[in-house]
Fold:
Amino acid sequence: MRSRDIGLRTHADGPNPSSSRLPDAEDAKVALCIATGALARTESRGAHFREDHPRRDDAHWLRRTLASWKSPSDTLPCLAYEPST
Structure:
């Protein structure tokens, strides 16, 4: 049975090193970039499903979303788009 092989990758005392890092401000910025980009998309694609836009829309959304912070005081990232290659 494969489930018997599930376990930690380390046997050292203390917390698992792969899960002991705490989220920080940069993690929060990345999460905001992902959420802002997802909310801006008016389509459904893969695991990103929206009830108000249930279909995929390649004509408008087959492109990369670029998120950036213009100023440290900005509360949300600015979004730009480039063609997907």
Remarks:
- The mean pLDDT is 85.
- Residues 29 and 77 are 8 Å apart (CA to CA).
